Amino acid sequence: MGRAGRTLDEDAVALLVAHEWPGNIRELINIVRRMLVMTTGTRLTAADVPAKLQQAHSTFVDDEDSFTGKKARMNLEFEQTYIDSLVRTCKGDVSAAARLSKLSRQSIYRMLERHGVDPNQYRNASHEDG
């Protein structure tokens, strides 16, 4: 794609492979291009995959007997625990969470959306404690 040194990690590839691309490779190319534009790091991760592909991910995770399905489920569970803990630590500050995790803010927002975590609940909780 013309950007040396940028790679797709195994989990991102698994999500892209799990999605059905009904005869249109251009759609896949456009998704990867968007991922390249939206991320600042050298590695594209599962967190960088657009939310609309998460449905493919959920069916992929449901394959309980496969190594890849179990690994995807564990990664998803880790991501949920991690994002919750991260945003709690940063008291709901998404920019601080992005800096601390070395992920883009867009990646943090996608994880928050995917796992139904509202960063405002941690902002409010920190004000109530004080």
Could you say which overall geometry the principal axes of the C-alpha atoms support? globular
Total strands: the figure is 2
The mean pLDDT is: 79
Structural class: mainly alpha
Classify the beta-strand content into a percent band. Answer: under 5%
Let me know the largest β-sheet.
2 strands, parallel
- End-to-end span in angstroms? 50 Å
Helix content: 55-70%
Query: What radius of gyration results from the CA coordinates?
Result: 16 Å
The poorly predicted ranges are 126-130
> Order of helices and strands, N to C?
EHHEHHHHH
Compact overview of the structure:
The chain has 130 residues and is mostly helical. It has one domain (7-129).
Topology:
Elements: E1 7-8, H1 10-18, H2 25-38, E2 43-44, H3 54-61, H4 67-89, H5 94-101, H6 105-115, H7 120-129
How would you describe this protein?
- There is one protein chain.
- This protein has 130 residues and is mainly alpha-helical.
- Helices cover 64% and strands 3% of the residues.
- The protein contains 7 helices and 2 strands; from the N terminus they run βααβααααα.
- The chain has helices at residues 10-18, 25-38, 54-61, 67-89, 94-101, 105-115, 120-129; strands spanning 7-8, 43-44.
- A two-stranded parallel sheet has the order 1-2.
- α5 packs across α6.
